[in-house]
Task: structure prediction
Amino acid sequence: MGIEKKKYEIVVHEYASLSDLPENDRSLVQAAMEATKNAWAPYSEFRVGAAAETEHGKIITGNNRENAAFPSGSCAERTVLSYTGANYPDQKIRAIAIAATTGGKFTSRPVSPCGNCRQLISEEEDRTGSPIRIILYGRSGIAVLDGVSALLPLRFSNSNLKG
Ligand code: THU
Result:
């Protein structure tokens, strides 16, 4: 058997500024920006806010929760996805928005979830059976993805457990 090369394409919708976003996405980003204020990030001083919106329009926010024992900390996305799944187990998540500040300013580039959080978003998509729109805020532009597969192609999921 020869070696086959396969290309995977990811689609990123880029918006120049908040005012270019559809109304519901814009509100979600604003909620994520607001949520950075309650981050507990005394070690990195990188304050992340995340906001999830359920299919019924309920917005839940969270932020990163650091810990003196560094690995015990939690990312903003983990905080918000755990809360949403625990409290609204029957609702799908339409979208999640993420924003972060450092040095008192929002990041210039869109803030992208860490690998672990991509995996958590993947599980949430599988649990609810529908893709989650991912909105990454940066001062220089906003990146919008239609689902986690754009961030985590070839991901490990429950289907892999079945062989
Ligand atoms: N962090 C998040 O909360 N979300 C991300 O997407 C990237 C990183 C947090 C973890 C840690 O508290 C700080 O940002 C620096 O890595």
Notes: The chain has four helices and seven strands. Residues 41, 44, 46, 48, 64, 66, 73, 75-77, 111, 113-114, 117 surround tetrahydrodeoxyuridine (CB under 6 Å). The beta strands are 13-15, 46-54, 59-63, 93-102, 105-106, 133-138, 141-145. The two ends are 22 Å apart (CA to CA).
